[in-house]
UniProtKB/TrEMBL annotation:
<feature type="binding site">
    <location>
        <position position="62"/>
    </location>
    <ligand>
        <name>Mg(2+)</name>
    </ligand>
</feature>
<dbReference type="InterPro" id="IPR024156">
    <property type="entry name" value="Small_GTPase_ARF"/>
</dbReference>
<dbReference type="InterPro" id="IPR005225">
    <property type="entry name" value="Small_GTP-bd"/>
</dbReference>
<comment type="similarity">
    <text>Belongs to the small GTPase superfamily. Arf family.</text>
</comment>
<keyword id="KW-0519">Myristate</keyword>
<keyword id="KW-0547">Nucleotide-binding</keyword>
<feature type="binding site">
    <location>
        <position position="45"/>
    </location>
    <ligand>
        <name>Mg(2+)</name>
    </ligand>
</feature>
<dbReference type="InterPro" id="IPR006689">
    <property type="entry name" value="Small_GTPase_ARF/SAR"/>
</dbReference>
<keyword id="KW-0449">Lipoprotein</keyword>
<feature type="binding site">
    <location>
        <begin position="140"/>
        <end position="143"/>
    </location>
    <ligand>
        <name>GTP</name>
    </ligand>
</feature>
<dbReference type="Pfam" id="PF00025">
    <property type="entry name" value="Arf"/>
</dbReference>
<feature type="binding site">
    <location>
        <begin position="38"/>
        <end position="45"/>
    </location>
    <ligand>
        <name>GTP</name>
    </ligand>
</feature>
<dbReference type="GO" id="GO:0005525">
    <property type="term" value="F:GTP binding"/>
</dbReference>
<keyword id="KW-0342">GTP-binding</keyword>
<comment type="subunit">
    <text>The GTP-bound form interacts with GOLGA1. The GTP-bound form interacts with GOLGA4 and RGPD8. The GTP-bound form directly interacts with ARFIP2. Binds to SCOC, preferentially in its GTP-bound form. May interact with UNC119. Interacts with ARFIP1; this interaction directs ARFIP1 to the trans-Golgi membranes. Interacts with ARFGEF1 (via N-terminus).</text>
</comment>
<keyword id="KW-0460">Magnesium</keyword>
<keyword id="KW-0479">Metal-binding</keyword>
Amino acid sequence: MLKKYFFGKHSFQTAGSLFSKIFNALTGKREMRILILGLDGAGKTTILYKLQVGEVVTTIPTIGFNVETIQYKRLKFQVWDLGGQTSIRPYWRCYYSNTDAVIYVVDSCDKDRMGISKSELVAMLEEEELKKAILVVFANKQDMDQAMTPSEVANALGLSALKDRKWQIFKTSAVKGTGLEEAMEWLIEMLNNRQ
């Protein structure tokens, strides 16, 4: 049984079942699951709520996870936003089962932790449960002057080495909303093509 806790105008659910209804959309025949992952402070929760309510909301670091249903165009899906702190990352694997796509969010300004981000991404993509998951990388915080370009982020993460996986990187700004629609359109197209 899932319990919902309300904080302000946002709901947070605790796990009773990791296999709740996830993504009832593309054909109506199969539910799909999308995870938003990345290091703490990358902008995962801001992106989640920008996609859901269309505006930036004040967030606090995610301890555990947020689950929200998002209506995008004519599609309805549920997105799991998992906390990115060092102590929480080992628990990401508890949520991998039945995942169809991963949105991996990178703080393009955080050059010092790009190596850690790469290590986490590589370890995650080696997991058997994610072998078929589509990867969308958001090179986030592109509205900042010191942001690495998407190609610099792709190089730092070693994305060109991914030969057996559909992936794409997008230049995004969670606070301005830029790049989010383009990324979601690509993801939906990839999910539709896989059906």
